Amino acid sequence: xxxxxxxxxxAGFVGSHLCEYVLNNTDYDIIGxxxxxYSGNLNRVTSIDGWEKYKKRVKFVYHDLQAPITELTHxxxxxxxxxxxxxxxxVVKRSLQDPLLFIKSNxxxxxxxMEYVRQLQPCVESVIYFSSDEVLGPADDDEGFxxxxxxxxxxxxxxxxxxxxxxxxxxxxxxxxxxxxxxSSNIYGTKQYxxxxxxxxxxxxxxxxxxxxxxxxxxxxxxxxxxxxxxxxILLFLLEHGCYGEIYHIEGExxxxxxxxxxxxxxxxxxxxxxxDIRWIKNPYVGHDFAYGLKDSKLKKMKFGLEFxxxxxxxxxxxxxxxxxxxxxxxxxxxx
Length: 336
Hints:
Shape: globular
CATH topology of the domain at 4-188 and 225-253: Rossmann fold
Mean pLDDT: 94
CATH class of the domain at 4-188 and 225-253: Alpha Beta
Distance between the termini: 49 Å
CATH superfamily of the domain at 4-188 and 225-253: NAD(P)-binding Rossmann-like Domain
Strand content: 15-25%
């Protein structure tokens, strides 16, 4: 029989790309769970290539994971073979403004998913809890964290994701659930929410505004970047081949925000970024970490590497977004 996979947060950026990857590379049927909050948009799913061909394989179920998944909702979902738990509040700055929302969504929400699996999906073959590099806190400029290093969150967001990891681990140990934890570096790709860094600087450039960068020219904030298509491929791989109870890191390419801004500006404007195009924010907010870093030692041992390149990825994102500016929420007055 055809396998079924439950993806929470399917209307989000990563969830919709994962949906597309699963449809293109497996015969699995998909049940997508989402509460369609400010960043969720089902048009991300219905606009994927080949949607008319694939749509019969996708079922959408509305549910807010701050509440338990009841038997009534379970009857709509049906039996599933796999679960990938992506649904989360994910913006550090928002978490500083409304920390309890993040605790409810990311901590209680994760507990509700794990309880649902324990009580109503006893035959599930594999569960992935999707976490973040931010749970490990700030990294030294030239170093990255291995999978076994201690949690050290700096913000309500990263604390809520760290709590989700501990909940997943404890449910796996207490109830013998087949759970794998995956931590990812910063993810980029098309149809990202406009609040995220790359679409935000694209919008600033297109509206002729100064680009806001954290840090300084001497020490800009640094991140490790990974294409959402690689993330989707790795999630499916670990769903089928990951060892239960293990933590896996998705690494990527290390680039600072100034490098990213220069590349995006050059691609859009066909000229170099100048100092008067930038507004540096030296002390962005409490809880901001200037550098993150992961080392993907376990994936390397499994001979599983990344396929996509950041510089080419930026060109792809910009080309797509110029044709689909609704994803940037740009006013009509802006001409491209």
